[in-house]
Amino acid sequence: MSFAAPESLAEQIAKHLAQRIIAGELQSGERIQEARVVNELDVSRGSVREALLILEQRYLINILPRRGAVVAHLTEKHVTDLYALYVNLLTMVGAEVAQRWRDEDLEPLYRLWKQMQRYAAEGDQALFIDSGFTVMHEGLRISGNDYLRQVLEDLQPAVQRTYALAVRRYPAEIQHALQFFADLLLAVQQRNTAVIPSVVQTYGHHQTGIVLAALAEETAECA
Amino acid sequence: MSFAAPESLAEQIAKHLAQRIIAGELQSGERIQEARVVNELDVSRGSVREALLILEQRYLINILPRRGAVVAHLTEKHVTDLYALYVNLLTMVGAEVAQRWRDEDLEPLYRLWKQMQRYAAEGDQALFIDSGFTVMHEGLRISGNDYLRQVLEDLQPAVQRTYALAVRRYPAEIQHALQFFADLLLAVQQRNTAVIPSVVQTYGHHQTGIVLAALAEETAECA
């Protein structure tokens, strides 16, 4: 495995480890040993340390005083708390975008929407999920609030981890997500800020339920 | 200056630099040179690098590709965006606390409230501001949402920076803040979740205005 510019080395290492946590290869409570990552990726200890700080900031690991880095646990409470915050922030993005979009902003959103439909039809889960988050990033760009952008970018990997878990078990969920994006984009296009909270909350509530069901199944299997 | 346990060295260095930014000693756009911090505090380069990453996560500095660490700019847009997010999250904390508090949670809140009244009467701005944030931390403890806690803890120094700027210029603001906390604690005690959004938003709107006025004065003086 080799890493190249332009992202910082620490960021690349963080993304690589994040991918493994999201895919479920590295599991809750599993230790991530600095020295092992240094050897496997042939990178400096300093870069790995920085990467672990980035992953902690993104809620994927905890760095414990004497134990080092451990993949963050995912309990019912984690999922409920994470989605409560995520839904609140997405509602804020949706409302801002509905108020602020200009004509030139709609075309990229429609293009992403077409892409999501295609990935859904082809059953490509990973690309579908990625393009869903790309819609969020596009919304953050339109909203222009850099604080909100950083907070949501930091939360994204943890949300992606729970969502990937749910979709692995319930692939039909993609159709549900597609309908949510259709409703959301319509509300945005109509500048219907009044309806956005309920659109986002309804879907957020549904998604929380699906993730909790997937988590309960997984826990039962591992027990 | 010397640093001791139990916080990590990086965290201590970060807090020290944060204090200087909040107090206005290090100003918008000013460079923070790694080597200089290493010499001044007699600490390792690695610890300073980690401290700078922490400060970037807390919105106090930007780390730029070739220029290194620079104190984050504070424009009208920064203040407006920061408070839009902060007010939204504080509303969430307030609503959660109003729903969740148990009998044993009220006593620490009242004690903090008494403390704030005393600091206000004594005109001790720094301690007053600190105890205001302690109320927030107490609220986060009661809400129990660790994601919300981390996001608000990361935002706090940037908010504190703007608020310290405002209070330095308008010391009478403390009375306004005191009234806000009185209204908020009453709504929480009455479990009146319906009124919390407007209490927080009204104060947030006022505070945004005061910070912007202080910022405009400062900018005019420096021009």
Question: What's this entry about, in short?
Answer:
Chain A is mostly helical and 223 residues long. Chain A has helices spanning 9-22, 34-41, 45-57, 76-100, 103-122, 125-143, 146-169, 173-189, 196-222; strands spanning 31-32, 61-64, 68-71.
User: How many beta-strand runs of chain A?
Assistant: 3
Provide the CATH top-level class of the largest domain in chain A.
Mainly Alpha
* Low-pLDDT ranges of chain A: 1-5
**Would you list the SSEs of chain A in sequence order as H and E?**
HEHHEEHHHHHH
CATH superfamily of the largest domain in chain A: GntR ligand-binding domain-like
In quaternary terms, these chains amount to homodimer
Tertiary shape of chain A: globular
Main β-sheet of chain A: number of strands, strand sense, barrel status? 3 strands, antiparallel
Widest sheet, order of strands of chain A: 1-3-2
Mean residue pLDDT of chain A:
93
Helix content of chain A: over 70%
Greatest interface (CB-CB under 8 A), with counts per chain: A-B, 26 and 26 residues
Q: What's the Cα radius of gyration of chain A?
A: 18 Å
What's the CATH topology label of the largest domain in chain A?
A: Four Helix Bundle (Hemerythrin (Met), subunit A)
Overview of the molecule:
The structure is a homodimer of 223-residue chains. Chain A has 223 residues and is mainly alpha-helical. Chain A has two domains: 9-71, Orthogonal Bundle (Arc Repressor Mutant, subunit A), CATH 1.10.10.10; 76-222, Four Helix Bundle (Hemerythrin (Met), subunit A) (Up-down Bundle), CATH 1.20.120. Chain A contains nine helices and three strands, in the order αβααββαααααα. Chain A has helices spanning 9-22, 34-41, 45-57, 76-100, 103-122, 125-143, 146-169, 173-189, 196-222; strands at 31-32, 61-64, 68-71. A three-stranded antiparallel β-sheet of chain A has the order 1-3-2. In chain A, helix 1 (9-22) crosses helix 3 (45-57), helix 4 (76-100) packs antiparallel against helix 9 and helix 8 (173-189) runs antiparallel to helix 9. The radius of gyration of chain A is 18 Å and the shape is globular. In chain A, 36% of the residues are buried. Residues 1-5 of chain A have low confidence and may be disordered. Chain A binds chain B through residues 46, 49-50, 53-54, 57, 59, 77-78, 81-82, 84-85, 88-89, 92, 144-148, 150-151, 154-155, 158, and chain B through 46, 49-50, 53-54, 57, 59, 77-78, 81-82, 84-85, 88-89, 92, 144-148, 150-151, 154-155, 158.
